[in-house]
Amino acid sequence: MNKKYYQVVTDDHSRFTWVFFLASKDETSGILKSFIAQIENLVDKKVKIIRCDNGTEFKNRVMSEFCEKKGIKREFSVARTPQQNGVDERRNKTLIEAARNMLADSKLPTTFWAEAVIIGRTPSLSFMKPFGCHVTILNTLDHLGKFDGKSNDGFFGYSLNSKAFRVYNIRTRKVEENLHVRF
């Protein structure tokens, strides 16, 4: 929940988008290196070119050495010209607008902005519940006594990595993934 920044990676061919949340811009190199290794392994193809803005998080010694070692060409846009980053700039605007609207509709504070960003796939709308709606979470994690309450209140979100729901537990003040949620 302490994420201040995000990094958008878009595949030029398919326009598929990945979003990574960062506490500081220093994390950019590590995330990008890890992402490239994962994607090359997943699709069994090499990343050939990286296009990015002139930010220092992309123009540094670590990224230069990594790209040189992997044979990746780097292309940089001209400073203060979002037109040259058209696809990503439009994607950024879409993500921020979606998060802003979801937060406004659910009346949750802006600290939940990273949870509200819609990422990657288009979900099936048949089972959708409103982002931020109130839920009751069955407590399956704590060792409870016979007469202890077995549920917690929380706010609802969607998980990207599992079939569980991503919920904010009001009692623990943490975001967790849980299948046992009642709307």
Task: Quickly describe the structure.
The chain has 4 helices and 9 strands, in the order ββαβαβααβββββ. It is of the alpha+beta class and 183 residues long. The protein has 2 domains: 5-97, 2-Layer Sandwich (Nucleotidyltransferase, domain 5); 123-183, no CATH class.
Structure overview:
InterPro entries: Integrase_cat-core, Retrotran_Ty1/copia-like, RNaseH-like_sf, RNaseH_sf, SH3_retrovirus. It holds the Pfam family SH3_retrovirus. This is Ribonuclease H-like domain-containing protein. With 183 residues, the chain is α+β, with helices and mostly antiparallel strands. It has 2 domains: 93 residues, Nucleotidyltransferase, domain 5, CATH 3.30.420; 61 residues, no CATH class. It contains 4 helices and 9 strands; from the N terminus they run ββαβαβααβββββ. The chain has a 5-stranded antiparallel sheet, with no helix packed on it. It has a two-stranded antiparallel ribbon with strand order 1-2. Helix 2 links the parallel strand 3 and strand 4. The protein is elongated.
DSSP, total strands: 9
| The CATH homologous superfamily of the largest domain | Ribonuclease H-like superfamily/Ribonuclease H
Helix content: 25-40%
Number of DSSP helices? 4
Order of helices and strands: EEHEHEHHEEEEE
CATH topology term of the largest domain: Nucleotidyltransferase, domain 5
Q: What overall geometry do the principal axes of the alpha carbons give?
A: elongated
- Please outline the major beta sheet: 5 strands, antiparallel
Using only C-alpha atoms, the radius of gyration works out to 20 Å
Structural class: alpha+beta
CATH class of the largest domain: Alpha Beta
Instruction: Give the total of domains.
Output: 2
